[in-house]
Design a protein that fits this description.
Blueprint lengths: L6 H14 L9 H8 L3 H13 L3 E4 L5 E4 L8 H5 L1
Antiparallel strand pairs: 1-2
Helix pairs in contact: 1-3, 2-3
């Protein structure tokens, strides 16, 4: 991606797209997302927190936890992510 978008926005877009491509209701660990997308884990954690806060993705704690796209994932627009 070009430098038009901040790194945070670029990582947010990548993370949402990655989660949208996962099987429904199959949480993905942060470290697995970071590894798959080659994003620094610590930085990705901050980005994921923002996405959770804005209800774009959901976070589940525990051994079967991780991140999943919100049920309304098909309605997420680029504008929602970069705001």
């Amino acid at each position: 991606m070009s430098n038009i978008l901040s790194k945070s926005s670029q990582y947010a877009i990548q993370a949402v797209m990655y989660l949208a491509g996962q099987p429904k209701n199959s949480p993905v660990f942060q470290r697995d997302i970071a590894s798959a997308l080659d994003i620094p884990n610590h930085f990705l954690g901050k980005v994921l927190q923002i996405l959770v806060k804005h209800d774009l993705i959901l976070s589940h704690k525990g051994i079967n936890g991780g991140f999943v796209i919100n049920q309304n994932g098909s309605k997420i627009t680029l504008d929602h992510i970069i705001r």
